């Protein structure tokens, strides 16, 4: 089993900011012995906060802005650093991800930072001489038809050649990759007036190989939605006894993104049937007045889902065969026995008739 650990230098923890909503970003100001570092160069023009460690820009539709960063090479050899522009999303932990891209973005996301931000061609793979630095540049062209609100992305840096692996005694390969990600927050004119959330659907699946029921929640607005608490309860349809529940506080959602809120089975087996889920979400984000959403949704778990996810789950009890399966097997055995009895009776009758005819 392979594990990829992406280690972010200097600030190994995410930094939390409260400027027009909570923004989590990873940045670096010094070299920490890995051969290179990346520093933000404060941009010219309107900014929401000039003291911010990330790019916090106030922009208007149709405007073009330039941002820059300095890559410092402290090694005695030339290095090459590749950079990308990412559009953020909400990951499975209920956090904003700045360091990767999802397989699919939310359907409400019409304007991606990565679509209208371009790294200068020569800077995509920047070459930095020994013990020197290079300034790299991104040009941001704000679309003319973009609505007001916040659009969030990141400028991601990774030094080439970081492919050395070490193996532990358990045989696990660890690939250490040192990277940097600096958030890009673009506020077009102003923040939105009020947040909104939707419950898109309810599905079953696995979360870290644990069986779950997921409530897929959507933040369909151009705004960072923070200070979010979500709770959910699952019951048999038409009944009131709570079978499974979960509550998580301190969640944060990227603009125009969705998040699968998990309700875990723990050590209980997954069972097919018809269920109901009650979901409640509350945000105390200081940008707006406190807001609560509530949903009640019916859903069905099939036998196929039970077999698929139970077979792949770990640290869960083995799921017993369905009662219907055993009933079918029992009926087949009974039918076979009855058939054998019938054949035996018919044979005895035939034998008795032949004996009577012989007399």
UniProtKB/TrEMBL annotation:
Residues 36-158 form the WxL Interacting Protein peptidoglycan binding domain. Residues 170-309 form the WxL Interacting Protein host binding domain. InterPro entries: WxLIP_HBD, WxLIP_PGBD. Keywords: Membrane, Transmembrane, Transmembrane helix. Pfam families: WxLIP_HBD, WxLIP_PGBD. The chain crosses the membrane at residues 324-347. This is DUF916 and DUF3324 domain-containing protein.
